[in-house]
Design brief:
The protein is α+β, with helices and mostly antiparallel strands. It contains three helices and twelve strands; from the N terminus they run H-E-H-E-E-E-E-E-E-E-H-E-E-E-E.
């Protein structure tokens, strides 16, 4: 075997070995409709194609977003998404391995609805996060009607069924990057960005914190 060929072969083997040892990059890929059992109303309210988000350690979550988000003009100081109404159905998420929410609470494996809620600007919540925008996760089995409007206290109680605690399951919203991107922001949070149609014909760009907590 020619010496130059042997050198090239060794280099190729080294590159293959290093590539195999390198951690997989976080990513999002398109998937089909929800496979889990959810109500017909929920299934019909979301787009047929969803997203599977995979982080570099193998954690996954599957998202399906509303066919159309209703938007309106609201004045919410500091909000990134003031045009979204409190309690509005945003989508579904399947958590095969569960997840830790923004408060560090454990959300067990399962399928959950996601509804928008702006954090109350009171003494219990000031300074928790730079902006007041959150998604509250509730068990899909307990929130089968996406058109249902919940007042704040009822939505909090419904979402608290996800954690078995007094506090709801809260997933923070952040500024969005390019649709379909899964990137780490300057606070070390992993943010999945997505573009969701609205009733105005424009698209809403959402940034969802899939890993990160208020105490990190």
């Amino acid at each position: 075997m020619h010496p130059d060929f042997r050198s090239c072969l060794r280099l190729a083997l080294l590159i293959s070995f290093l590539a195999a040892q390198a951690p997989a990059a976080s990513k999002a890929e398109r998937i089909g409709p929800p496979a889990a059992a959810v109500s017909d109303a929920l299934r019909q309210s979301v787009e047929e194609k969803g997203y599977r988000v995979t982080l570099d350690d193998g954690w996954t979550a599957e998202f399906w977003f509303a066919k159309q988000l209703k938007t309106e003009t609201r004045n919410v100081p500091g909000a990134l998404y003031p045009e979204l109404a409190d309690g509005e159905f945003v989508g579904l998420v399947n958590l095969p391995q569960g997840m830790s929410d923004f408060r560090g609470q454990s959300i067990p494996p399962g399928v959950y609805t996601l509804r928008y809620q702006s954090l109350p600007q009171d003494g219990n919540h000031m300074g928790v996060t730079p902006n007041p925008d959150f998604l509250l996760a509730s068990p899909a089995s307990a929130d089968a009607r996406p058109e249902q409007n919940y007042p704040y206290r009822k939505l909090v109680a419904l979402s608290a069924k996800s954690t078995g605690a007094n506090h709801p399951a809260v997933i923070a919203l952040e500024s969005a990057a390019a649709p379909g991107a899964v990137v780490k922001n300057d606070r070390g949070e992993m943010v999945f960005s997505v573009s969701v149609p609205t009733t105005t014909g424009a698209a809403e760009q959402l940034g969802i914190v899939v890993r990160g907590s208020a105490g990190q």
